[in-house]
Amino acid sequence: MIHKVAAFYQFAALPDYRALREPLRAFCAGLALKGSVLLAQEGINGTIAGAPEAIDAFVHELARGTLFGGRLNNLELKFSTAEAMPFGRLKVRLKKEIVTLGDEAADPTRQVGTYVEAAEWNALIAAPDTLLLDTRNAFEVAMGTFEGAVDPEIKSFGQFKDFAAEQLDPAKHRRIAMFCTGGIRCEKASAHLLARGFAEVYHLKGGILKYLEEVPEAQSRWRGECFVFDERVALGHGLRERGLREQELGHDRDE
Questions:
Q1: What is the pLDDT of residues 153-173, one digit of tens each?
Q2: 113 Cβ partners below 8 Å, 6+ apart?
Q3: Residue 36, CB half-sphere, CA atoms under 13 Å: how many?
Q4: Residue 141: which H helix or E strand, with range?
Q5: Contact, 3 vs 84, CB < 8 A?
């Protein structure tokens, strides 16, 4: 059986996120879905897998069903497949942030960087005055990244603030293009930089996964594999599984 995998997020006001946890968990369990979903006052973030029709029903409920009442009508969604179920169980967790940065000024619902579609990404990062910045953790960067990208050498995304304070200067770095796996970390990172006075901040819409899905390998500036937080471990162009073993990597997950 081929499993359909959905990676999704949206920043949206969910003041009732605690009350949403059990109904959402029950809905997912009823569809025999497995994976991880994070709920916070600022929105939703997750990756789940299951039968194709079950994933379709789940996405429909998020975007158009009664549970969220139309508040998730702008979901960032990416679909891929897995030959084996990539998750051991279903987890629906409550968090302070759906991606942890620890900066109250970084609010993607108020301001966010300029989205760049995958088809336009190569031209942007080829410009000589563009600083290309990988916002992911060091072990992810080690597996693959874009040509010429700066590695912030962080162990967790929460350390990005320190990197920006120490290494980035609004007067010097006039144009910054950043990327991450699915786009969510760049939402927070771009909001953080804009709040600090950076003039031009761009980020890859849909993240590396959307780029690998849409850009032909012959035209790609991506090198290596893209780490994903499930048992597939890494994906390549066309979102093909790379067949790596997570236990060989020797790291903890940073969701």
A1: 999 999 999 999 999 999 999
A2: 178, 186, 187, 190, 191, 193, 194, 201, 202, 203
A3: 16
A4: helix 138-143
A5: yes
Tens of pLDDT, residues 196-235? 999 999 999 999 999 999 999 999 999 999 998 787 878 8
The percentage of residues in the chain with a pLDDT greater than 90, rounded to a whole number, is: 87
Backbone φ, ψ for residue 175 (5° rounding) = -135, 120
Residues 227/139, Cβ–Cβ less than 8 Å? yes
Sheet holding 3-11, edge to edge: 76-82, 3-11, 43-50, 34-40, 90-94
Which residues form the catalytic set?
Answer: 180
Greatest distance between any 2 Cα atoms in the chain: 54
8 A C-beta contact, residue 192 and residue 106: yes
Buried b (16+ CB within 10 A) or exposed e, 56-67: ebbbebbbeeee
